Structure formats: C-alpha cells, structure tokens
Amino acid sequence: MKKILTLLMALTLVLAFAGCSADKSGESGTAAADTKSEGVMTYAEYDAAALDSEVVIETYVQAKQSWWEDKATVYTQDKDGAYFLYELACSEADYAKLVKGTKIKVTGYKAEWSGEVEVIDATFEILDGSFVAAAKDVTSLLGTDTLIDSQNEFVSFKGLTVEAAGKDESGADVAFLYKYDGAGQDGDDLYFNVSLDGKTYTFTVESYLCDKTTDVYAAVKNLKIGDKIDAEGFLYWYEGANPHITAVTPAK
Amino acid sequence: MRRILSVFLLVFMFAALPALSACHGSRGLSEFELPDSFDTSKDYEITFWAKNDSNKTQTDIYKKTIADFEALYPNVTVNLRLYTDYGKIYNDVITNLSTNTTPNVCITYPDHIATYLTGTNTVVPLDALFSDEKYGLGGSEVRFSSPKRSEIVPKFLDECSIDGFYYAIPFMRSTEACYVNKTLVEALGYTLPEVLTWDFVWEVSEAATAKAEDGTFLANGQNVMIPFIYKSTDNMMIQLLRQKNAEYSTDTGGIRLFNDVTAELLYTIAEHTESGAFSTFKVSSYPGNFLNSGQCVFAIDSTAGAAWMGADAPLSDIDEAKRVSFETAVMPIPQFDTGNPQMLSQGPSVCVFNKDNPQEVLVSWLFAQFLLTDEVQIAYSETEGYVPVTLKARNSDVYRDYLSRSGENNTTYYAVKIKASELLLDNIDNTFITPVFNGSISLRDATGQLIENTVKSVKRKETVDSSYIEKLYRDVSALYRLEQLGGESAANSAGGADLGELPETARILLTSLLAVWVLIALYVLVSAVKRKKSKKV
Fold it and tell me: pLDDT for B11-56, tens place per residue?
C-alpha cells in the first residue's frame, strides 16, 4: 500500500510540474514573438488566403464596435496586420471580457463586402496574452493605392485641415454632418471632410464604435472649418477608404 | 387532520397564485376609449419614430410635416426620432414595450405589429377612430383636409388589418423592381422581353460570366462582374414560392416553408452561385453599387431605392470615376407565369401606441392621420419610387404633373425613379402580402436565411444536396425558433426539432399542479384510513 501511495504522490508531482512548465512556455511564446499556435495562420497566410476560405487566426482586440443578439463586431490586430471580425458569435458575458489587448483565437471565413475584407461566421476562444497596437502614421499614404495595405489597422493622420462637409438649413457651410448627407440627428454617425495637399477625404465617427458620449464625438461636433487637426482611428473600407475615427486633437 | 389539510391546501394555493398569474404576463394598459372632445387647454408632447431611406429630402419632409401639424395644433409638440432601418425600430419598440416607453406614433410593418400585440392593449385598434364623426378620417373636427376612408387605396388599407382589426394605416407603398443594364443585355446578344422571366434572367446572367484570356469579363472588360444580385433574399424566396403556387405559411401561423419546391429553388440558386452568375446584398454589397459600376446586369431592389439605381442616379455611394454610362430599364421582377405576374406589396405603415392618457392617444391619431394629407403623401412619394396610399393624392393634378415630367432632370424627375413608381401603379392588382401572425417576422427572416446560407455554402465549396438541405432546414428552423411559434407552427416546422427546456413559469405551474394532486391524493388516502378505523371500532 505504501509503495502505491508513494508512486501516486510521485506521479502527482511529475504531472504538476509538467502542467506548470506547459503554462510557462505558453506565456513566453506570447510575450516574446507573438508566435502562432499550431494550425493558426500568420498574417501573411491570412492575407494570401482566398476569399470564402476558412481561416484560423490568433489576434488581439483593439476596439469593440457593437454587440447584438450574441453577435459582436470587433477590430483586432496582431503585430503584422489587422483583422476585422464581423458579427462574431459571442455571448454578452464573453463580450464583456473582450477588453482592449485581449488575445483571441478565431475560426471563421474570409469575406469581402464593398471592399472591406473581414472574417465572418466566426467563433472564438480567449487566450492568455495581450497586445495593444500603436497608431501607424499613414498620412503620406492618403489618396494612394497602397493605403489599402493598412486596411482595418489602427492608424493616425497628421496635419489635416477641416473642410466644409455640407450646408445647414440656412445654406451656410458646416464642418460636419449627421450621416453622410445630413439626414441624421444627434447620436448618428458623424461625417467630416479633411484636406491634405489639396485633396479632400471624408472621415467618419461611427456611432456604434464611438457613440455621442465619447470625446471624439464631442470633438468633431466642435470642429470649425479651417481647423488643423491630427486624427486616429481604424482604417475601415467601404467602396474606398472610410476611416472610423476614434480621436481628434489639434495638430501638433 | 381534515382541517390541517384544508388549511395547508389553502395556503399552498395562495402561494401558487403568483406562479399562475405569471403565465398571463404583466398587467397591461387599459383599453383605449376615445374622448368626446380634444382638450385644447392642455399641452401634449408626443414622439414619432420614423424611417428614412438615407435620403435627406425625406428627413426634411418629416420636419416640415411636424412643423405644419404643430402650427395647426399649437398645444402639441412632436419629437422626431429617425431610423434608417425597419429592424432597428422593431428592436427598440420591443425593448420599450415592457416599460411602456414606446413612441406615440411609429412607422412599422404589420409583421412587427403582430409581435407588439402580444402585450396588453399596446397598439390602438383604429376601427373606431376611422369612423368617428369628429376626429375620424375626414372628420368634422379635424383641422386639415383628411382623406375619407374610401379615399385610401382599399388593398393597401386591408394590408393593415390583423385578426379583423385595423392596427395601422398605410403610409407609403412600394414593390421590388429589376433594374437592368439594358446596354449590357444587348451587348450579350439578347433583347429584353416585355415581361422578364426567371429563365431569361438566369440565361443572360450565365452568358455574362464568360471571361477573356486575361481573366477579365468579356461583358464589361472589368475584373468584377456579378450578373444578378438580389437585395432582399426573404422577398426573393417568398415571391418565387408564390409564383410557383407553393406553400409558405398558413393564415394562422402554420409554417410551410420547408418543402420540396423550396429545395428545388435552392438547388437552382446554388447552381447559378457556383458559376458566379448570382449573389446577394448580404454576401457582396448593394446591387446598385455594382449596377452603376457596370458590374451587374440585373439588380433587384425596392422601388423605394430607385434614386440609387442607374447610370444617372442622383444618389450614389461609389466614386464618380467608377460610374459607367448605360441605359437602365426598370422592369417588374422575373416571373414563372408571364400571364399571371406576382410581386410583393411593401412599404411603411403607421401605428399608434396606447398610453394612459386618452387625449395623448387622440393627438397621436390626429398626427398619424396628418401623414395621409396630399401634401405629405405627394412630397414623400416623390423622394423615391414610392406610391401615395390615398386615391385623393394619387389622382391629384400635382401628382399627375409629377409623373408626366419623367426625365426632365436627374433629381426630382429622375426617370428611373418615376418609372419605378409607375411600375407599382400599373401592378397594384398583381401585388400580394404574406400572412401576418405572431412570429411571421421570424419566418420571413428564416426564408432569407435559406438563400444566404446556400449562397455562402456554395462559395465555400460545400455540396448542396438533399442531406445539405435537410440540415439547412433543421438549422434555420432552430435558429429562428420556428418550432416554438404558436398556432399550427410547431407541428409543421422543419424536422420536428427539440423544443428545448420548458420556460421557468411553465415549470413552476406544472410543479404546483403536481403538488396539489399529491396533497389531494394524500387527503383521500388519510380519509380512507380514518373511515376504515372508525368501521373497525
């Protein structure tokens, strides 16, 4: 009996150590080089994958856009590129756990809708690890064909000039519109125009991503035509670049 | 012992009362009673939840309508809340029903009202209001030129009747149109028939998938071509089934969607998806974006989206540089039987929500009625390919003049938009609606899901065969909980799927009933033993 007990204790110790060491290797793997687990695509592999094919990725939550009826729409990114997760299967409780930086493994299908490349019909699991992307300055890429290479990434634009977005009911120029044509009201998406080097671009404050209580919503409502600004946001795509702006500050 | 048991039973039944009452839901509002007169000595504030089609002119019309109404009734303030999606209005109303914070007046669909009616006295039945001499349609005390009941298009009004009562008035009506790149059809060697058939649309679409050696499409010389795109796949399947004279649902809520004709139609859709001839809005994007870029031959969308369709469309989401020039034909949706065309009637209706104060409800009704005045009807119908719902507006000189000026410009008189309105005006007798019942909105969603899932599966190289269809029916039925619907639905939904766990209230009720029976049995047993003992004595 003693022998059996001794053997059992020894076995328990061995298993316990094995468990600890496995845990450690997971942590170091994440922290060191964002190494992908077995069967998980690198960003390059995801980028090369055909539309409508199944993709398995490991990525990090950067911002949550919406949750409704167990479906979440989330901006995610790893150190190599970004993945837009559209209507990810997600309980409300799990949605609460998806804080900025959270590492998740996602299995879904690569799709494209009006130029926006996204992962749809996906499920996910939360993993250990954290990563928050710094805004990538893409100011020089505005209006170029290479801007699309940064699609869905957290990006920044510097030294922009606010232009008229449209006219109000009295015919006066205004710096922003509720919805693209001014058909909306407070709480709806905000649209505003900025120019750089003589070219004008339309930016959006997406109301699900940043609602009317956020600083950026208030900041855009306070913009004046001619203001010089810097902006940050996610490089969403709809029939062309359609940045979803999350921060606006006076140009430095 | 008998006394103790009686007391115990009494206590138990009182304790079980909450469980029993829980089955009847929370106490609702009292039934609305029309006041004798409108009390103008008090101020009223009502809310109007409206939907626009991402069209600023529509927003402006709503604002003007409110201003005009407030001028007529200075003691009334109308607060506007705008939506661009019927589904979001529905969700918000459902959320606000339990707290009685619904709007006063709301743009809606009868399918939605059927769900709202599961509450007690939530939506006001309008029958008595219609016929009231003072405040009814064309009433003597109404401060504007209100249409008489006979001046509302009967077919449109009938669409607002649920279980024999009118719970809404029609606001605008539309149908679907097939917007055709006629230039491309002819370049492919075809001539548009007088009435589009499904066979013709599939054949031309297949022809348009041909590619040159460099991978571009022969039809347009571009890298992208989706010859046939359908915006609303629930409408697509509903109309296909109707045209095939196949079942969809019964009037009382029996689900008949999951049948062999549906399967055959899905096989056809799968075949044309695989060849690249067909896609949907949910999978690809707005049909209009592809049509206007010369990347689509047949784009089916609502006539209420006509201002977005065609080479010269006044509204557009795509870069000007991407737009191409072509001739746009506006045609009814494809048919199986060209001698008996069938198409859906759709478009917003307006319902009035009940409130504690009957005066507030009366004001709400007056405002809803104001939406039927000629000025509102004509102005709003001109924003898209809508049709006014009153004969009064439709036969007015102003509206006739509008129709006669088709093509004068690409804004107010945009030809495609006016042709879309005329399409419905010419086909009102060929329109239909689907039965309305609690859950009909879920059935509608499930119908579209069948097509969306099939299209996605084909694109993902899955095999669409009989076992796929069987599983699809089970999955979609479960997703939309069709087997849990009332009426005949449960018995007829796909596959007789598991109904899932009983609701909490039902479990409490059944447990209570079981406990009562146990106590009764105990009581009978004890009585019998006592009788036996007394006989022995």
Answer: 444 444 444 433 333 457 899 999 999 999 999 999 999 998 778 8
Looking at the fold, whether A109 and A201 belong to one and the same domain comes out as no
Which residues of chain B neighbour A109 with C-beta distances below 8 Å?
456, 460
Parallel, antiparallel, or unpaired: how do β-strands A136-137 and A154-163 relate?
parallel
- The domain that contains B215 carries what CATH number? 3.40.190.10
What is the percentage of chain B residues whose pLDDT exceeds 70?
88
CA atoms B328, B333, B335, B338: torsion sign: negative
Q: What is the mean pLDDT of residues B105-114?
A: 94
pLDDT digits (tens, 9 = 90+) for A8-24: 444 443 443 343 333 33
CATH of the domain at A121: 2.40.50.140
List residues of chain B with CB under 8 Å from any CB of chain A: 52, 54-56, 58-59, 80-82, 84, 91, 283-286, 289, 317-319, 322, 456, 459-461
Which of A130, A145, A162 is the C-terminal boundary of a domain?
A: A130
pLDDT digits (tens, 9 = 90+) for B440-460: 999 999 999 999 999 999 999
- Helix (H, G, I), strand (E, B), or coil: what is residue B42? coil
């926006």: which residue's tokens? A116
Residues A50 and A124 in one domain: yes
Across the interface, do A183 and B56 touch by the CB < 8 Å criterion? Answer: yes
* B317 neighbourhood in chain A, CB within 8 Å: 238-239
Longest CA–CA separation in chain A, Å: 94
* Sequence-distant (≥ 6) Cβ neighbours of residue B209 within 8 angstroms: B217, B225, B227, B275, B276, B277
Q: Is B19:B509 a contact under the CB 8 Å cutoff?
A: yes
Find the closest chain A residue to B57 by CA distance.
A183
Contacts of A199 in chain B (CB under 8 A): none
Q: State the smallest CA–CA distance between residue A210 and chain B in angstroms.
A: 18
Do B406 and B303 share a structural domain?
A: no
Taking residue B162's Cβ as centre, other Cβ atoms within 10 Å add up to 21
Cβ(B325)–Cβ(B220) under 8 Å? no
Query: Which residues of chain A make contact with B62, given a CB cutoff of 8 A?
Result: none
Distance from CA of A138 to the nearest CA of B (A): 21
Domain match, A113 and A177 both? no
Domain shared by A194 and A212, yes or no = yes
Mean pLDDT for all residues in chain B: 90
pLDDT top residue among B98 and B349: B349
Nearest to A183 among B59, B322, B456 (CB): B59
pLDDT of B74 > 80? The answer is: yes
Q: How confident is the model at residue B526 (pLDDT cuts 50, 70, 90)?
A: confident
- Which residues in chain A are contacts of B295 at CB distance < 8 A? none
Q: Are residues A170 and A239 in the same domain?
A: yes
Q: In 10 A of CB B252, how many CB atoms?
A: 12
Share the mean pLDDT of chain A: 89
Q: Which domain holds residue B356?
A: 44-173+346-412
Tell me the chain B residues in contact with residue A148 when contact means C-beta distances shorter than 8 Å: none
Residues of A in contact with B296 (CB under 8 A): none
ipTM of the complex: 0.84
Number of domains in chain B: 3
pLDDT mean over B328-338: 98
pTM: 0.85
* CA Rg value for chain A: 23
In a domain, B459, yes or no: yes
Contact A237, A115 (CB under 8 A): yes
Q: Are residues B462 and B522 in the same domain?
A: no
pLDDT tens digit string along A131-185?
A: 999 999 999 999 999 999 999 999 999 999 999 999 988 899 999 999 998 989 9
Answer whether A52 sits within 8 Å of B58, measured CB to CB. Answer: no
Which of B412, B442, B461 is the C-terminal boundary of a domain? B412
Residue B4 has pLDDT above 70, yes or no: no
How near does any CA of chain A get to the CA of B379, in Å? 16
Say if residue A172 is in the same domain as residue A113: no
Last residue of a domain, one of A130, A163, A180: A130
Same domain, A122 and A162: no
A vs B, Cβ pairs < 8 A, gives 48
Task: Determine which of B59, B223, B291, B461 to mutate to test the interface with A (most A C-beta atoms within 10 Å).
Answer: B59
Rounded to whole angstroms, the Cα distance separating B361 from B94 reads: 19
Q: Are residues A153 and A78 in the same domain?
A: no
Over residues A82-108, the pLDDT tens digits come to 999 999 999 999 999 999 999 999 999
